[in-house]
Design goal:
Length: 123
């Protein structure tokens, strides 16, 4: 769910420094949860990528999915999805309406990230 929107934001036209900063913050949070709670899955995926430099995207796809399932099943991620559903839906809607210039959605993504940070601080 979240990955699609942020992925579009990273690869869309109209990229600016704010967009990269937002993506970096989101990626940092995802990596933090993954590294802390899904260490085994992360290590297996990393070993697969290192062992298959030319074909890692295909060869390691199942391990990538396993790592993503682990991270998304973590209680903090589920709580963020629940508590921040409204700002995330607004962000997704903005992306749909601004596919040619996703930088217009920076305010929406900032609202979502603020909500997610508040959830993290409360837990």
């Amino acid at each position: 769910m979240a990955t699609v929107g942020f992925s579009r934001m990273r690869t869309g036209t109209g990229r600016g420094p704010g967009v990269f900063r937002v993506c970096s913050a989101r990626q940092h949070a995802a990596l933090e949860v993954t590294a802390r709670h899904c260490r085994s899955e992360l290590e297996q995926y990393g070993r697969c990528v290192a062992a298959s430099p030319a074909t890692w995207q295909q060869d390691c796809h199942q391990l990538k999915l396993s790592m993503a399932r682990c991270a998304s099943s973590h209680p903090i991620v589920q709580k963020i999805r629940h508590d921040c559903a409204e700002p995330f839906a607004a962000f997704e809607q903005c992306l749909k309406q601004n596919q040619a210039s996703v930088v217009n959605c920076t305010e929406h993504v900032n609202e979502f990230l603020l909500c997610a940070e508040q959830v993290k601080l409360m837990t």
